[in-house]
Write a structure and sequence with these properties.
Blueprint (H helix, E strand, L loop, with lengths): L6 E4 L4 E5 L4 E6 L4 E5 L3 E6 L4 E6 L8
Antiparallel strand pairs: 1-2, 2-3, 3-4, 4-5, 5-6
Length: about 60
């Protein structure tokens, strides 16, 4: 188990910028649905409090066949 430190800046009711040791992320949403996009182009949609989330990469697809 490790120790994590996160800095969050809230800009309005539904917009937040998060800074961690590894990079940045932007969170948009409210109490019922949130979308988070990080600097590695990973998008997460989640339903807070339920443990349900969906992750996808928005970056370049693998061109190997």
């Amino acid at each position: 188990m490790g120790f994590h430190l996160r800095k969050s800046i809230k800009l309005g009711k539904f917009f937040k910028i998060n800074k961690t040791k590894k990079g940045y992320s932007v969170t948009i949403g409210g109490k019922n649905l949130k979308f988070t996009l990080n600097d590695k182009k990973k998008l997460t949609a989640s339903l807070p409090g339920t443990g349900i989330s969906y992750d996808t990469n928005l970056g370049k697809k693998d061109s190997r066949k």
